[in-house]
Amino acid sequence: CTIAAINRSTIEYLVGRVARGISNVVDLAGNTVGVPLGSRPEFALHRFLYLQGVDVSQVTLVDVPVNQSVEALVSGEVDAVAAWEPFTNEAQKRLGGQVVSWSVQEDQPSYNLVMSRADWIRENQELITRFLRSLVEAEAYVEANPESAKAFMREKYSYDEGHVASVWPEHSFSVLLDQALVVAMEDQARWILSQDLTGGRQMPDFMTNICEEALEAVKPEAVSLIR
After folding, report:
1. Over the stretch 11-33, which tens digit does the pLDDT of each residue have?
2. Fewer Cβ close by (within 10 Å): the C or N end of the chain?
3. Distances from the Cα of 40 to the Cαs of 65, 100, 158, 199, in angstroms?
4. Three-class DSSP category at 191
């Protein structure tokens, strides 16, 4: 059961090599794109191509793990890659002005969620409430002290200052449960079903798997679900 979202991000990109004749999205037709198949980046790529009027059947998708996407693009194994930061940023650095890139998320961010079993939630209401209060306090701290938060990220993950500065605006560190989350999950579920990745399962009712009561008690304005 989903208790809260804690981050919304738009860090998924499509990076293509100009030398392979790619300067616009339509140029991807007839080219190869490396992407981890059956993943969030593949879903985002399908949605992006559809919105741009490109038939995904005209593009050859190659199964490339995100952590191998840079080498696959630099070596010429594929003509483009769909992945997330920091890998897409690294690919652009390695190839300089020889690439073009687009955000593949359009108006739909990725969500980082806090989840637990429904029975555990029922048995640990006080603990969950304290936990959510801590997250809300952390949200307020990040908003009030962005430079300190960035410094913590650099130290924690050994990121350089330039990388953190470039991706920071692509994150929204907010504790919430909004209707856009439900829409995003439904969009992804429809795609998963269309790709026959569920073994014949039906479309789930995501609203039955969201437990908003604890967040409503801690920060009611953060809940904007339509029931």
Report:
1. 999 999 999 999 999 999 999 99
2. C
3. 12, 21, 25, 18
4. helix
